[in-house]
Design a protein that fits this description.
CATH class: Mainly Alpha
Number of domains: 1
Number of helices: 9
Number of strands: 2
Structural class: mainly alpha
Strand order of the largest sheet: 1-2
Radius of gyration: 18 Å
Helix content: over 70%
Shape: globular
Distance between the termini: 21 Å
CATH architecture: Orthogonal Bundle
Strand content: under 5%
Largest sheet: 2 strands, antiparallel
Length: 261
């Protein structure tokens, strides 16, 4: 694929992302609260829990690097596409809506679209890079909680989006519906996992389940509409690529050749 073609795909993805973020802005404008850090904040998790989630994240990130090297050796245009997806995920996940009682923020994630287009392993790597840049330069999330954020947004979001999309497509569900449900469930899976991580880390001597439900319910007012929005964004990106560049979807094994006719 030529540089011009890569640039066209990048512009398409970024324009769709910008459109989705404009729709998200209404939630931010309607939210009145003190500022809270994005993702799971620095210092929220005790050292032992932060270390545990970081150790769990390491093999996923390592496998993502392995897959990137392997696929890039076969297709030189693959790395630029991964770079574009990293930019999309970074921008999508940079829109915070504070959730005061949860110690975190609601935001779209973008890992459904990256999981579908470049596969869950590389999508985890993409999310890890986006989260690291946000932690280092925007104070969104933290270095100590980087592993926990990778697990929730990268691992759970990517696999939930990818597996949902593949399952629905295997049942002959159309691209728009498959993309919408994949985006929706990827977003909600991220926050379900975040609730587990937060409740596990901060419960102390208290019971896990009451605190888990309290945190999960705190996310619902913001994450319910954001999940629907992310579903619409994911469906829109997939459908637009199908209309404009079905060859890319075939190359990335999102579609079979006969489905693009």
């Amino acid at each position: 694929m030529s540089k011009t073609e890569i640039r066209k795909v990048g512009v398409t993805l970024l324009l769709l992302t910008a459109y989705g973020l404009l729709l998200t802005a209404y939630g931010i404008l309607l939210t009145v609260s003190d500022a809270h850090a994005m993702h799971i904040s620095e210092g929220i998790l005790p050292f032992n829990w932060a270390a545990l989630w970081s150790l769990l994240a390491v093999p996923f990130v390592a496998y993502g690097l392995y897959r990137l090297r392997k696929l890039s050796a076969v297709d030189l245009s693959f790395k630029p596409l991964v770079g574009l997806m990293a930019a999309v995920v970074f921008i999508i996940s940079c829109m915070p809506i504070p959730v005061p009682t949860a110690g975190s923020c609601s935001h779209p994630c973008g890992t459904a679209i990256s999981g579908i287009l470049v596969g869950p392993a590389i999508s985890i790597l993409v999310a890890a890079v986006a989260l690291l840049i946000q932690a280092l330069f925007l104070a969104h999330g933290g270095l100590s909680t980087w592993g926990a954020n990778i697990i929730s947004m990268g691992v759970m979001g990517s696999f939930a989006g990818f597996l949902t999309f593949k399952a629905l497509r295997s049942m002959k569900i159309n691209l728009a519906v498959s993309g919408f449900v994949a985006g929706l469930l990827a977003d909600w899976a991220t926050y379900f996992t975040t609730s587990i991580e937060l409740a596990s880390g901060i419960k102390g001597d208290s019971a896990f389940m009451p605190l888990f439900w309290k945190i999960l319910i705190a996310f619902i007012p913001t994450q319910l509409p954001l999940g629907i929005l992310e579903g619409a964004m994911t469906a829109g990106m997939i459908v637009l690529l199908y209309k404009k560049r079905p060859d890319l979807l075939i190359r990335m094994k999102v579609l079979k050749a006969e489905e693009a006719v």
